[in-house]
Amino acid sequence: MASGKAVITARPWAVACFLLPALLLLGALVVYPIGYSVWRSLYDASGDSFVGLDNFQELFTNDAVRTALRNNLIWIVVAPTLATALGLIFAVLTERIRWGTAFKLIVFMPMAISMLAAGIIFRLVYEADPDRGVANAVMTTVNDAFTGSSSWPDAQPRPGGPLTAQEDGSYLLEEPVRAGEPALLPLVAVPQPELEDAAPAAAAAADPGQVSGTVWMDFTRGGGGSENAVDPEERGLAGITVQAVADGRVVAEAETAEDGTFTLPAEADGTRLRLAADSFTAPYNGVEWLGPSLITPAIIGSYVWMWAGFAMVLIAAGLASVPRETLEAARVDGAGEWQVFRRITVPLLAPVLAVVMVTLMINVLKIFDLIYVIAPPSTQGDANVLALQLYLSSFGSEPDQGLGSAIAVFLLLLVVPVIIFNLRRLRRENQR
């Protein structure tokens, strides 16, 4: 049988016929676009005037492009590392559980979703309103479970009324209170929906041995009623902490009942009443995920959600080829599971981990869809990356395809070292 080299030497025309379609496609889809981009990067926005390397100089002077460069550096360091680490953890942990296959399927499922669809999903996940955004809904639920929520965050003193707002958010009664003379502490601005389950307000009973009073919503729906007086249709504000303060010290405190009434012991006689600030603090609404400071980490989180399954599948395939006798020998010699993982499993998986890391690094250099969809217009500039800037520069409101082509060439130059590293690694593995 003739060797492959002999066939190539004897029938070069046959080899050319087989390679010609692939070469034509490669030239049309790869070589020509690269060549045209390099040529176009040397001209101005109109494409008429030759500007040399001015477009490449602008890459490092344009604020938007510099932000994109910085974010790309964050992406290329953080995203592949997190996705690979999670994939490694999932692959190792699911190897020993009975339902590992089902778990792997669930983790890998996001790979079946397009970047556009994933962006829409996480745009909703990161909504600031806890009633719509899952991330903030979870955070507010956990926060309320440990810290609780204020009773009436919207309540305010009636303008010109006996209560005045303090710097710490509390409301202070101007005049000292006396035992046997019920105090009136009117509040306003509570939305009607919050009052639907509130009980009718009641005037506190006079007791010479106690300080009593009422905290209520001093507003009659539809008009009518008297200011600073408890009217029949007005509602009591329950759960408000009332403190008796003398010389800056709290001598007694109580919590208002369902009808807004409260009673304090005789020690409160002659003190000034204060409605505690924690009864009126604004509710915790979570984190501004799509704000300038968190937009890039938030989008990286969505990327890791998608690609951790990819890393897990490749690493699990490499883990299946790890010699079990090597692991068992280490355990017999007294090595713990962490030592086996760190000193044996990870070194044996190093080639697979390198493949995953290199693949994800190339992938994040091209990231565009998630940022374009998730980041709102107000913070898109803070989340900007080179691929997005390429699109905005070439096809945005002020198109400059010279600058866009320069960004494309720069991206190619960034990818080339990674590809060379990968090719050398593959060549070394083939020589073993």
TrEMBL record:
<dbReference type="Pfam" id="PF00528">
    <property type="entry name" value="BPD_transp_1"/>
</dbReference>
<feature type="transmembrane region" description="Helical">
    <location>
        <begin position="12"/>
        <end position="34"/>
    </location>
</feature>
<feature type="transmembrane region" description="Helical">
    <location>
        <begin position="344"/>
        <end position="368"/>
    </location>
</feature>
<feature type="transmembrane region" description="Helical">
    <location>
        <begin position="303"/>
        <end position="323"/>
    </location>
</feature>
<protein>
    <submittedName>
        <fullName>Sugar ABC transporter permease</fullName>
    </submittedName>
</protein>
<keyword id="KW-0472">Membrane</keyword>
<feature type="transmembrane region" description="Helical">
    <location>
        <begin position="402"/>
        <end position="423"/>
    </location>
</feature>
<feature type="transmembrane region" description="Helical">
    <location>
        <begin position="105"/>
        <end position="126"/>
    </location>
</feature>
<comment type="similarity">
    <text>Belongs to the binding-protein-dependent transport system permease family.</text>
</comment>
<feature type="region of interest" description="Disordered">
    <location>
        <begin position="148"/>
        <end position="167"/>
    </location>
</feature>
<dbReference type="InterPro" id="IPR050809">
    <property type="entry name" value="UgpAE/MalFG_permease"/>
</dbReference>
<dbReference type="InterPro" id="IPR035906">
    <property type="entry name" value="MetI-like_sf"/>
</dbReference>
<keyword id="KW-0813">Transport</keyword>
<keyword id="KW-1003">Cell membrane</keyword>
<keyword id="KW-1133">Transmembrane helix</keyword>
<feature type="transmembrane region" description="Helical">
    <location>
        <begin position="73"/>
        <end position="93"/>
    </location>
</feature>
<dbReference type="InterPro" id="IPR000515">
    <property type="entry name" value="MetI-like"/>
</dbReference>
<keyword id="KW-0812">Transmembrane</keyword>
<feature type="domain" description="ABC transmembrane type-1">
    <location>
        <begin position="69"/>
        <end position="422"/>
    </location>
</feature>
